[in-house]
Specification:
Blueprint lengths: L3 H12 L8 E11 L23 E3 L5 E5 L6 H17 L5 E2 L23 H17 L9 E6 L4 H8 L6 H19 L1 H7 L4 E3 L11 E4 L2 E3 L16 H4 L8 H13 L3 H6 L2 E2 L2 E2 L17 E4 L8 H8 L3 E7 L11 H16 L7 H17 L6 E4 L2 E4 H23 L3 H14 L5 H12 L3 H18 L4 H22 L6 H10 L3
Antiparallel strand pairs: 1-3, 1-4, 1-5, 2-3, 5-12, 6-8, 7-8, 9-10, 11-12, 13-14
Helix pairs in contact: 5-11, 6-12, 11-13, 11-14, 13-14
Protein name: Glutamate--cysteine ligase
EC number: 6.3.2.2
GO molecular function: ATP binding; glutamate-cysteine ligase activity; metal ion binding
Length: 522
């Protein structure tokens, strides 16, 4: 009996073999601005880069120093990477003596109180964005918010879903079928995402200053560096994105409606610890509200269902009204050995993995399986390269390597289908290349980071600062062509004008503006 994956791929091959060429790919990359000595840049967002509020390609995430580069959705990952390269190349020319930190775990940070929160100007929406970040500071601390990563946005062709729906004799509304298919993808992603952490985790060590005296359970590599010998991604461990309130939040991924209901409850339900803080202190905003989540984006998930929102529309509203359009993969570390932190080979593997998750059978997850998947992920980020590491599959122990080999075998057909659509062998070659990391852990980015630290007898901070300087020099030696540079300058100027226009509008009462915004959850 053929599996669902086999049936779906056979259908594509027979009826629409080129359809997979219409997948879309987008990238979001975060990078801290640093001074030449490796310390956090305390300067405002450079005006030459435009407005962080209104620029479509260059903004900030949590801190004023945490740049975020955003590409459009492209038909190939190479095109998305090329746009990211252009954005980064332009940015380097406008930073003066400053550099971009090339690791996910931060540089040496100043005292917690001195880490600057991102500022977006005096417009109501600009103030709201800063208030939200102030809320993150009081809830989670500022240091955690300076961790950086790469988000990979991916969608399958809209024409794929009616084809599958007809073949499966499904009579749901088309929008409901497509949304459910993406939710099914997300469930499989949660089952198997430990594999991505093993293959691509690149943060096995951290500057000791990041912990700032907190208990951590890490080993000491040298006076200034903490690490775990088999870790793949401390960024994704409980040392990174952690919070006792969020640990109680377990959105249900059985259906889109149950997922949305979980988040609506979280953004509408007061949490005692946050209620004790209040929304204002001495007239100064502390957070948008005292609920478990201020807004839905506060939930730190490894993958999100997404829909492009209209102006003024909340993400929850966009998903509820028009369904899932794409997924946002949020667990990727920045690979410090790569100029962009990611390359085409990794993107081709991700496409293969996500196609597998979308087309493979994805039964509902029981509470026990949810806990098992969470435990597998947590074990892999801290001990993924440990020889013979045992994960748990349906309650039975299974070695990471053996399970990984079986997943690679299952993904083979997906890689072949993608190569048939695009032409060439890029996806199959990516699969073969990454399989080598499964058999030889020394080839993983996390192992390479530790190997270099030990070989050169240098601290994590020293190693990362040297890489930042080298990447900057490489980019500055080959700036954008004058015409491209002028286009970026024009975009920056237009974004500043757009922010000024927003700030010229009649003043509004911020209490009412915030209350109206946070109330829009349906």
């Amino acid at each position: 009996m053929h599996s669902l994956l086999t049936q779906r791929l056979a259908l594509l091959q027979s009826q629409a073999p080129e359809l997979l060429r219409q997948c879309h790919h987008g990238l979001e990359k975060e990078s801290l601005r640093i001074n030449h000595d490796g310390s956090l840049a305390m300067t405002p967002h450079p005006q030459a880069l435009g407005s962080a509020l209104t620029h479509s390609q260059i903004t900030t995430d949590y801190s004023e120093a945490l740049l975020e580069f955003i590409t459009a959705a492209h038909s190939t990952p190479q095109a998305a990477l090329a746009e990211l390269d252009d954005i980064q190349r332009f940015t380097y020319t406008e930073l003066g003596e400053e550099l971009l930190w090339t690791h996910s775990m931060p540089c040496k940070l100043p005292a917690e109180a001195d880490i600057p929160i991102a500022q977006y100007g005096s417009s109501p929406i600009g103030q709201l964005k800063t208030i939200y970040r102030q809320g993150l500071a009081v809830r989670y601390g500022k240091a955690m918010q300076c961790i950086a990563g790469i988000h990979y946005n991916f969608s399958l062709p809209d024409e794929l879903w009616p084809l599958l729906q007809r073949a499966e004799d499904n009579h749901d509304a088309p929008q409901a079928y497509q949304s459910q298919a993406y939710i099914d993808l997300i469930r499989n992603f949660r089952r198997y995402s430990w594999l991505l952490m093993y293959l691509f985790g690149a943060s096995p060590a951290v500057c000791a200053s990041f912990l700032q005296g907190r208990p951590h359970g890490l080993d000491q590599l040298d006076e200034h560096t903490l690490y775990l010998p088999y870790a793949t991604s401390l960024r994704m461990s409980d040392l990174g994105y952690q919070n006792s309130a969020q640990s109680s939040l377990t959105p249900c991924y059985d259906q889109l409606d149950t997922y949305l209901d979980s988040l609506r409850h979280a953004v509408s339900t007061p949490y005692p610890t946050y209620a004790a803080i209040g929304t204002k202190k001495n007239g100064q905003w502390q957070q948008l509200n005292t609920n478990l989540l201020q807004i839905e984006n506060e939930y730190y998930s490894t993958i999100r269902p997404k829909r492009v929102a209209a102006s003024g529309e909340r993400p929850l509203q966009a998903l509820g009204r028009r369904g899932v359009q794409y997924v946002e993969v949020r667990l990727l570390d920045i690979n410090p050995f790569l100029p962009l932190g990611i390359d085409a080979q990794q993107a081709h593997f991700l496409d293969t993995f996500l196609l597998f998750c979308a087309l493979h059978e994805s039964p509902p997850m029981t509470g026990e399986e949810c806990r098992e998947s969470t435990a597998n992920f947590a074990l892999t980020v801290k001990e993924g390269r440990r020889p013979g590491l045992l994960l748990s599959e349906n309650g039975r122990p299974r070695t990471l390597r053996d399970w990984g080999e079986c997943l690679f075998d299952a993904m083979e057909a997906c890689a072949i289908a993608l190569d048939h659509a695009y032409g060439g062998h890029a996806h199959h070659e990516a699969l073969s290349h990454m399989r080598q990391r499964l058999t030889d852990p020394a080839l993983t980015p996390s192992a390479k980071v530790l190997s270099q630290l030990k070989r050169e007898h240098c601290a994590f901070f020293t190693f990362a600062r040297q890489q930042a300087a080298q990447h900057a020099a490489d980019y500055r030696e080959q700036p954008l062509a004058p015409a491209q540079h002028s286009q970026f300058q024009a975009s920056a100027a237009a974004s500043l004008a757009a922010q000024a226009a927003l700030e010229a509008e009649p003043a509004v009462d911020m209490d009412r503006f915030v209350a109206d915004y946070v109330a829009q959850v349906h």
